[in-house]
């Protein structure tokens, strides 16, 4: 989650070109030191978290996410930028989402990713599995707040759609901005690019997702985000992932030592007794009253038992019938 777009707090830079995410950074700016300058980062309801089975609760009332005005015209221009922490694309506020308690209008989207040698850089993980990358489409509550800066620190201020990305099939949707990524290699560089259908970056199914209350994943870590993490990941090709993970620097063009920009994800945060609502019945699970997960294997065995019992009963009936028939036949023959 990248905050520079809507907050007056500049994200601190580590000295000696060390990145915001470098654990070894001994200054006040490394990931383990965020809370010293930004108390919320050490507080509760932080993101990202591991979306683990024990925390899930099925909620059949959760509506599919509706995306509106996402199909932008190629005549329109969007700003692609490198803010030193991620690659970011500005979005017009007429784009909005429905299916949430308020109308949330779009502000920007950005990515978190792994390193060129380790395609594991998503912020959210699913039962410990870290995906290659993650996209965040950031929206603000436009029913209540004038803009994202005002909304950022309000408890109902933000809603983020998160898309997990794995390396696989080539995905033409990502090329809409990847083909311009070399224009923003260094921090603070920006280019104007033609707009496109932002819906194409999302997975096919918008009705299956995880939902929980969390925070910005960069300082100042306000606990103001209603998170929606889609269940299905989308893919990008190995080549597309390489472009994302090798093209950018967290240092500016003027700096003599260039610092590659990758591994820009925050460490997992504590669940803090939160429940993660899910809009779908997990294939690995059966939910009982939406609460107690019963392993799917158990349900499968129940079905097998019923089928086996049915076959056995059928066999017994068949055998009884055959026996009666033979007996009758023998009897007739004797007569
Ligand atoms: Zn993010």
From TrEMBL:
Instruction: List the catalysed reactions.
Output: hydrogencarbonate + H(+) = CO2 + H2O
**Alphabetical UniProt keywords:** Glycoprotein, Lyase, Membrane, Metal-binding, Transmembrane, Transmembrane helix, Zinc
The EC category is lyase
Q: What Gene3D superfamilies does this protein map onto? A: Alpha carbonic anhydrase
In short, the EC number is: 4.2.1.1
> So where does this one cross the membrane?
298-319
Domain annotation Alpha-carbonic anhydrase: ranges: 17-280
The job of this chain, per UniProt, is described as:
Reversible hydration of carbon dioxide.
Q: What is this protein called?
A: Carbonic anhydrase
Q: Which organism is it from?
A: Scleropages formosus
Question: Which lineage ranks, top first, belong to the organism behind this chain?
Answer: Eukaryota, Metazoa, Chordata, Craniata, Vertebrata
The gene from which this protein is expressed is CA12
